[in-house]
Amino acid sequence: MHVMILGTRGVPSKHSGFETFAQDFSFFLLSRGHQVTVYCQVAAGEAAAEDNWNGIRRVLIPAGEGPLGTMLFDWKAIRHSMRQKGVVLTLGYNTAAFNCLYRFSGVKNIMNMDGIEWKRAKWPLPARIWFWANEWAGARLANHLVADHPEICKHLSRHTSRAKISTIAYGADPVTNAPESLISQFDLSPKQYYLLIARPEPENSILEIVRGYSFRSRGLPLVVLGKYKTGGTPYQKAVLDAAGPEVRFLGALFDRDIVKALRYHARGYLHGHQVGGTNPSLVESLAAGNAVIAHDNRFTRWVAGEGAAFFRTPEDIDRILLSLEKAPETLAAMEMASRERHSEAFAQEKILSSYEELLLRYAPAEALREMAAYEAETMQSVWPL
Q1: How far, in Å, CA of 329 to CA of 344, rounded?
Q2: CA gap 284, 175 in Å, rounded
Q3: Three-class SS string for the chain?
Q4: Of 226, 199, 196, the residue nearest 211 (C-alpha)
Q5: How far is 277 from 346, CA to CA, in rounded Å?
Q6: 365: buried, middle or exposed (CB in 10 Å: 19+, 13-18, 0-12)?
Q7: CA distance 53 to 86
Q8: Those residues with Cβ within 8 angstroms of residue 299's Cβ, 6 or more apart along the chain or in another chain
Q9: CATH of 181-345, one of 3.90.25.10, 3.90.1150.10, 3.10.310.10, 3.40.50.2000
Q10: Distance of CA 362 to the CA centre of its chain
Q11: Which pLDDT score is estimated for 383?
Q12: Number of neighbours of residue 275 by Cβ within 10 angstroms
């Protein structure tokens, strides 16, 4: 079948979340004999073009920066894809109203609804109204919805039939080793630091984590990944002001090998996300066998499992860290629980196969015949072995 992926900035992935998923899923589909097109946003003024990147057909669409640029990019991508043969996978619902065009073209559209975007504290009221309206539109206009968490599935059931929703989380490959040289460049040693990876936004509880960590000397640094700068947002300033001398800000890192190494060698991973469904960063930490200290809410409890430790306040952070200092053997049990939870629910091939099976249900009939022929040919080629 031919799968068209919309809703991300494109491949190669230079960000986290949906971009990483789009890249990983594209390579999985190629390995299964499918064709893949990924729509990619490029700077305004560049020429619209198509090319091939590692077997992935890329449609390059110029658009400006910011929300208006994203809206223009999504509109052009939908206009282009509706004239193609295949099935669409839309990642996110932020411009879901535009998807009414697929109803006229007959192209089937599967939409991953992401988290509950309109509940995020960073958005002003007009933006929240826009996101809520598009959540409503996406639930009605898409042919099928993907919820990345059981609680997101419940939420979406307010808008549409439960039969129209599939719950598929995010996956990650297990991380069983990583070069120490990738962390030594930051003057870090294995199991001698805690790690926090998140955008500097209030609903990610970074301020609470930094305050709790800075209550007293820990003898170990808290390494924070994310974009913080002097003169940044008021929230960034509050986090920087609250940080004690053991909190280290490494900036926004997107090199996947470096981030994997930082996870793998961390003593523990602190995760503060309060809004949304299954967070890819948390899944990746489970895959790396991190001891997880997570914000106590209905989303993270399901993802992290009962082997994690949970907090709500800076005082909780302080208490958990003190208890781990006094009983370091607890860390080993937490690490084992993370790996077991990952294997149970977030193995990458299982997740990607679930997406493939769903898309095949909506692919044009000729695509199914082509897939059957491909599988038969593959079976013949390996059977004599």
Answers
A1: 23
A2: 9
A3: CEEEEECCCCCCCCCCCHHHHHHHHHHHHHHCCCEEEEEEEEECCCCCEEEEECCEEEEEEEECCHHHHHHHHHHHHHHHHCCCCCEEEEECCCCHHHHHHHHHHCCEEEEECCCCHHHCCCCCHHHHHHHHHHHHHHHHHCCEEEECCHHHHHHHCCCCCHHHEEECCCCECCCCCCCCHHHHCCCCCCCCCEEEECCCCHHHCHHHHHHHHCCCCCCCCEEEECCCCCCCCHHHHHHHHHCCCCEEEEECCCCHHHHHHHHHHCCEEEECCCCCCCCHHHHHHHHCCCCEEEECCHHHHHHHCCCCEEECCHHHHHHHHHHHHHCCHHHHHHHHHHHHHHHHHCEHHHHHHHHHHHHHHHCCHHHHHHHHHHHHHHHHHHCCC
A4: 196
A5: 14
A6: exposed
A7: 19
A8: 149, 151, 273, 274, 275, 276, 277, 278, 279
A9: 3.40.50.2000
A10: 24
A11: 34
A12: 18
| CATH 3.40.50.2000 segments of the chain | 2-171+347-382, 181-345
Place of tokens 């072995």: 385
CB 32 within 8 A of CB 359: no
- Convert the pLDDT of each residue in 140-196 to its tens digit: 999 999 999 999 999 999 999 999 999 999 999 999 999 999 999 999 999 999 999
Beta bridge partners of 292: 269
Over residues 312-319, mean pLDDT: 98
The token pair that represents 148 in the structure block: 């990345």
CATH number listed for the domain at residues 2-171+347-382: 3.40.50.2000
Phi then psi dihedrals of residue 40, to 5 deg: -120, 135
CA–CA distance, 52 with 298 (Å, rounded to integer): 41
- The candidate with the shortest Cα–Cα distance to 144, out of 101, 167, 110, is 110
Residue 374 pLDDT > 90, yes or no? no
pLDDT at 380: 45
Would you say 359 and 87 are in contact if contact means Cβ atoms under 8 Å apart?
yes
- Residue 210 is which amino acid? V
